[in-house]
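task queued by scheduler; priority normal; single chain, no ligands, no partner chains; default sampling; output format set to structure tokens
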Amino acid sequence: MKRIDKKVADAYFKTRTTLIMSFLGIGVIVSFGVVLFAESLTEVTFIGIPIHYYMGAQGAIVTFIILLFLNAIISDRIDKKYGIDDSRNETIGKGKPMDH
């Protein structure tokens, strides 16, 4: 197993934590923020539907799906940036019995 420098590991952890917290913040705003300000958002429409109604019915789910794909893509890029290679981990782990 490859040893990673503590500074690199801390930077990786900080980057991943920031990414996750950002996506969680967007999720909270999309799901709860729109509901909290529904009355003031009645004037705003999206494809002819009031935005608070659209977000409650479909927009929040679509946003979560987009966030999942973005998280996967950005996480892969971060892993490559810090030298984390899943395919190498899989080849190392093959053929070895697991100790329980």
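post-processing summary
- Strands lie at 45-46, 49-50.
- The longest strand covers residues 45-46.
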